[in-house]
DNA sequence: GTGAAAGCGCTAACAT
DNA sequence: ATGTTAGCGCTTTCAC
């Protein structure tokens, strides 16, 4: 059995109050008693009971993170950064996966962990902002990658329209003209895909081109297989082939490159490819992948900052924050102008 | 403020005892009171306070998962599976990262979360079995991918020697003779790399070949960059080039293929490559990667089973379990015999 | 079938 | 500077 404050107090011949003070440094204790208590503490290997502490404090020190999938490269990386940012604030993270399903998102918001966490960070997929806010109780919440037009909660995201615009412009600048957009997700409610599509179209318009609906290929998920399949579809359709693709995620892009290879389409010579997320695989893929790189560390940091603000100022009436984090376009082999086959190592 | 049992009891005009019974179905309650209580429960949107429950029960319902990195493809996938297996048992998982550092492993075992979790699943990297058992307190613990010669705790792993043997034999069967092993980690204490090396050597011996120390290349980590660098080293050394590589992880293998490509070495024609872990990237890489595929779902399931056994039978004297989960060799493009350039989709 | 009350381990208000 | 104690919300023993 683990020893409690009472045990330590008995051993040191003092009251629990004093032991508590020593443990927390909350009041002044004479040097002599402190030493005696400390010794008892060590001898008994005292560890505070977190449940009791939480019960008293009304806080658990736990933060819920709700994402589609832990093992997705993008969310995995983000989760790792969030865990570390949380650690710096003495918080512990609980990760839940929704697999992009609306019912799971609902369940996780209301049910399973809602009562136990002090705050929630959620990357919504199937639910839109208004439903999110209905589902969530009074628990402070931060939305990731969600535009949230109604401003129901804090949210942290890159400027998806701008980023997609830049990616598309980059392809235009390397001389591409029939640029496909693979990644719209009509069934998705979180708005991200829409914004990327808007940015893509904006860039085309600016270049005097008219977006061709046949080049906008929707996908059911952002996984590699979905990208591979969408690319097959695009190639099988007949009509003039695209000379570039802007994929709404790196995973899609990797699937697209896989299909290109299977069909004898050379990347980047016949087809330039740009992705989104800057996952590690893209740095080592063949060819390496040009991509939009969001500042993930900053996403993690800012999200936790938002949560901290709300948790520590309970009655606060701070309006929902809308935070935009920086991104940059990382140009690699998959979009290099033909004939410029650089062999540099991954960057 | 969230409502408590007491609030509900007051509203329903019964005692807390009765409300508790309704919530937990723990004793028989008359149909009439049950209905009244249920109504009060709904009206107040009652949610049990987990901290209080834990304090009473002496359990938190939390399981700690200690892995090198969440965003590693292998551990990410495993973590996802563990989270789901835990969910099925009404447990919640807390994930911590060690980055493969000994001090972090120690800290996480003793310190931060040890007092709060009911059990610990750890994939040790820098600590060996005996130190692990010293560090951990009385908390039930399961080791992943660790041979644990001293049998200090339950552990779940594939048969690494056998798996490495099979991978090497596969390369021998496709006619390769100078097979390199990239992945030994002398600084690692968990034994995994050693076992894979042993299996590799055993296969060579069986084929009548003598392992060439120059073909065994140690690495500092199992990441892609480490693989890329090790391959560069191997090629720069001069001497006869290898015609195959057995990499101790898929990530290493992907890095190796990257270097091969940069150096104009064709895979699989000039160099066959086999990895370990069966991560998703390997299915979509170019060429797709032959690999040893551990049954990850079963690893997760069995690990939780071990924990459940110990947590629910506290005084139990069950000796530490040693569980071996199945694996299989998945042959893809990177090791196809030269001249058999199948273009089939990823499998 | 239901109520009263003790107690899990901790913190903090109140006392000395 | 330190002791005493109420009470956080819950489960459960004991009593009726």
From TrEMBL, chains A, B:
Task: List residues of the HTH lacI-type domain.
Answer: 3-57
Q: Which SMART domains match?
A: HTH_LACI
Write out the GO MF terms: DNA binding
Would the keyword Transcription regulation be found if you checked this record's keyword annotation? yes
Keyword list, A-Z = DNA-binding, Transcription, Transcription regulation
The family database entries (PANTHER family) matched by this protein are listed as:
LACI-RELATED TRANSCRIPTIONAL REPRESSOR, LACTOSE OPERON REPRESSOR
- This chain belongs to the protein called LacI family DNA-binding transcriptional regulator
- Which organism does this record belong to? Streptomyces macrosporus
| Classification of source organism | Bacteria, Bacillati, Actinomycetota, Actinomycetes, Kitasatosporales
